[in-house]
Write a structure and sequence with these properties.
By secondary structure, the chain is mostly helical. It is 75% helix and 0% strand. It folds into two domains: 1-189, Growth Hormone, Chain: A (Up-down Bundle); 215-389, Growth Hormone, Chain: A (Up-down Bundle). The chain has 21 helices and no strands. InterPro entries: MFS (IPR011701), MFS_trans_sf (IPR036259).
């Protein structure tokens, strides 16, 4: 199968709209959670509550992913993405100016965050419809690179807005970004109908389809391959702050990790052919853990940043799984499948951070980071059968027909009901 190019990806108008709204989303979320964390700390003086506020936006992914994901296939994707932006805008304005108590602010973020996996799933599931064939994988690479850059820019911009306008002003800026993104989506994307009719309750259907997806050995293996190595990476990154004594140097190391991720995604996405990309999944997944072993030698900030950058570059292993995942899931539940992938990833990273954080209470932070790296290597080796593509997998998948949003395998799947 011929590999796509960045020029071909950005030539698709719908992708440019998805890309622009996604950058606004990630940057806005970075500003929002930073501003909320500072606002809570100003009111309470509690580091624990401030940290809880920073993580509150991600915690609902588990519940939303468990009970609500079927909405991603039962409703129009454009409507869902617009609804997500408007809900975020209203939430930010309420946090900034409604005078809510701290518990009320946290409850609001958690309640509105329950639908976040649905909004993310609608965006992710639309991508293979907009970008056929290998262009889909390259589109995912572009979004991952943009995510890393937008996180860095969002945190930096959030700090600037906090300095000049305070937390309410920073939250108002996020609300404005969300409104702009909603307008971009409304006038930039054409209407697309829902993939699946609402034939039962959303919660029941979500549970039923989740069981169906997890019962499929191929889908389950690809989900675990996408989740578990990242669990170990999150555990390592969670210990960077205590490793450096809580100093601002931790930001340098974490920024280096984000930069390494962006470089890895760009290089593998741009220069590796589709077949090579899939063969690289195994060695890159191992690379995700190896550099963190170096923290057992207590490196200084320079070496720590270099190790973190090299390790995070291994995240490009996921590019070799994306096409196989699209081929493996039935088209009529594609939105829920991508939502389950995202919700499991978010939940797993929180679990990994908690587990290695607990280990860091018993042993030195550098040793805990090294343990996390070793766990990542073992996980990659245990998942070797999934990470290594079947022989002739890519060769067996001819290019999708121009203008079609699915691969030929998916077309065949349509004829037998998904």
């Amino acid at each position: 199968m011929k590999g796509a190019t960045f020029g071909e990806v950005f030539a698709v108008r719908e992708f440019k709209v998805i890309f622009g709204s996604f950058v606004l989303l990630i940057a806005g979320d970075g500003i929002k959670m930073l501003a909320l964390s500072v606002l809570v700390y100003e009111r309470t003086g509690s580091p624990g509550l401030s940290a809880a506020a920073y993580m509150a936006g991600w915690l609902p992914f588990f519940l939303g992913g468990l009970f609500l994901l079927s909405l991603a296939d039962r409703l129009s994707p454009r409507a869902l993405m617009i609804a997500g932006e408007l809900i975020r805008a209203v939430t930010c304005l309420l946090l900034a100016y409604a005078g809510l108590p701290v518990w009320g602010m946290l409850a609001l973020v958690v309640a509105t965050g329950l639908f976040s996996p649905v909004f993310f799933a609608a965006r992710a599931a639309m991508l293979p419809e907009v970008l056929p064939g290998d262009a889909f994988v390259l589109g995912r690479s572009v979004l991952n690179v943009a995510s890393a850059g937008a996180q860095i820019v969002g945190l930096a911009a959030g700090g600037a807005f906090l300095t000049f306008a305070g937390p309410p002003g920073a939250l108002a800026v996020t609300a404005g970004l969300s409104v702009v993104a909603a307008l971009v989506l409304r006038f930039g994307l054409p209407y697309r109908a829902a993939r699946k009719a609402a034939d039962q309750g959303a919660v029941r259907q979500t549970l039923q389809v989740n069981r169906r997806l997890l019962a499929d050995g191929r889908v389950r293996g690809l989900l675990l391959a996408g989740w578990l190595p990242c669990v170990c990476l999150a555990g390592a990154e969670a210990m960077v702050v205590p490793y450096l004594g809580g100093q601002g140097q931790a930001g340098v190391v974490l920024a280096a990790a984000a930069g390494g991720m962006a470089v890895g995604e760009f290089v593998v996405g741009r220069f590796a052919a589709p077949a090579l990309r899939e063969r690289l999944s195994m060695p890159l997944a191992v690379l995700l853990g190896v550099p963190w072993l170096g923290f057992a030698a207590s490196p200084g900030i320079g070496w720590a940043a270099a190790l973190a950058a090299v390790g995070a570059a291994g995240l490009a292993y996921q590019l070799g799984l994306q096409r196989r995942f699209v081929d493996a899931v039935p088209e009529d539940v594609r939105g829920q499948a991508f939502g389950l992938q995202s919700a499991g990833l978010m939940t797993g990273q929180a679990v990994g951070a908690a587990l290695i954080g607990g280990l860091g209470e018993v042993i030195a932070p550098g040793q805990a980071i090294a343990v996390s790296g070793a766990a990542g290597i073992l996980v990659a080796l245990a998942l070797a059968r999934v990470l290594r593509p079947a022989p002739d997998h890519v060769a067996a998948a001819p290019p999708a027909a121009p203008g079609d949003g699915a691969s030929p395998r998916q077309e065949a799947r349509r004829s037998r009901g998904g």
